[in-house]
Amino acid sequence: MFSDDERSNRLRPLILTELVAQYLNDTERARFYGLPETTRIRERAKIISPDRLVLGEHCWIGEGAVLDASGGLTIGEHTSIGVNTLVFTHSSWLANMMLENHPGSDLIERKPVRIGKGCFVGGLSVLLPGVTVGDFVVVQPNSVVARDVPDRCLVAGNPARVFSHHDEDHIRAEAARVRASG
C-alpha cells in the first residue's frame, strides 16, 4: 500500500504533520510548526517548505491559506494573510511546456516573496513568485499581485493595481474613528 521510495519517504512525515496540526488550536499549531508564539494559524493552512519561511511576530494566517516558501518567503510582523490566500514562490510552467514536470526538474523556477510589516492581505488573493509587498499595505480580497507593491497603499484587482496611498496621519485618524465608534 505505501511506496518505499525516496520521495514518498520524504513526503510522508509532512503529510502526517499536516494531519496532526488539524487537531490543534491556533497557538498549539504555531508552536508545532516552530512559528513565533504570537502567531495565530488557522485550520487547513498549509506551509510548503516551512524551513524557508521567516515570519514576524503577531501574524495571522487564515483558514485554507497556502504559503509556498520553497523559493523563500518573508512575512513581516503584524501581518494578516486572508482565508484561502495563495502565496507562490515557485512556478513549473516551463517544466510543463517542456514535458519535464517531475520532482527535481531544473525547469521549476523559484523566486522569493516578501510581504512587509503591518499588511493585510485579503482572502482569496494570489501573490505570484518574486513579488515584494511593501510595509502597511492592504491587498483587497480576490486580488492577484503580479508586481511589486510600494509601502502604504491599497491595491486591488487582477492584476492588482494601486488605488490609494495612505500616510501615517490617515491611519491614526482611522484608528481614532474606529475606537470612538466601538
From TrEMBL:
Keywords: Acyltransferase, Transferase. GO terms for molecular function: acyltransferase activity. SUPFAM superfamilies: Trimeric LpxA-like enzymes. It comes from the Bacteria. Belongs to the transferase hexapeptide repeat family. PANTHER family: ACETYLTRANSFERASE C18B11.09C-RELATED (PTHR23416:SF23), SIALIC ACID SYNTHASE-RELATED (PTHR23416). This is Acyltransferase. It comes from Amycolatopsis pigmentata. The lineage of its organism: Bacteria, Bacillati, Actinomycetota, Actinomycetes, Pseudonocardiales.
